[in-house]
Amino acid sequence: MAEIHAACFTQPRPWSATEFRELCASPLCLVKTLDLGFAITRRAGPEAELLTIAVHPDARRQGKARALLSELLATLQSDGCEEVFLEVVADNHPAIVLYKAAGFTELSYRKDYYNGVNGSKSAALVMRKIL
Asked: Distances from the Cα of 62 to the Cαs of 18, 58, 110, 118, in angstroms?
């Protein structure tokens, strides 16, 4: 997962293998995987947060992210989750299109939320889907 994440993200920074091991070990996290892709949510009562979704650049444009997101949302809903939140870099247009197509709506905007390389900052969109 760390290798795929590093191939997908520079801002915010890619997560380490240790961070992924810790997340996957948590009983609050739900992990879905496909060949060259994965998604992770963390549950908090009736809510969940999509922590990350990543598909290796060589495997994109094949519907993998859509399939991962759809499977995650279906599992969360069947487990009694009522709503899902996420944060996304505001200029990550492909991800925003994916989330909107899945029924997420924009909730808020966080200026200079993510720290990038060489001190750069990026805004975040907070999005939500009611299940």
From this structure: 29, 10, 31, 33
CA distances from 55 to 49, 70, 83, 131 (A): 18, 14, 24, 24
What is the domain count for the chain? 1
- Residue pair 30/75 in contact (Cβ under 8 Å)? The answer is yes
How far is residue 23's CA from residue 18's CA, in Å, rounded to a whole number? 9
pLDDT tens digit sequence for 42-62: 999 999 999 999 998 888 888
pTM over 0.90: no
* Domain containing residue 18: CATH number: 3.40.630.30
State residue 12's pLDDT score.
64
